[in-house]
Amino acid sequence: MRNQPALQTSTGAIWLGLGTVMTIIVLAVLGALLTVHTVISALGMALVVVLFVALVVTRFVTPPGRRRLTTMASLFGAIAFVGLATVFVVSSIPAESLG
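Below the sequence we write its predicted structure tokens.
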């Protein structure tokens, strides 16, 4: 499990590419949820953007190696988690409290 090129010898470009795609998808979904609950959706969007910026900064600031790749993979996972958690929170709010 630990002997994976994406976590051993990669340049980090794969995490940057996947992070960009994931960020676009999450922002599109949360953007659609702005009409349901503006504050929670906007907070989720802001956190996703911050995590993506951290992903980009990590790629260009941290020296090549396992540490950089593990950090980038963790930030990618955090983007997905924040998106999923935000969708879950917004969808769990009862409809009666929205109107």
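The radius of gyration is 16 Å.
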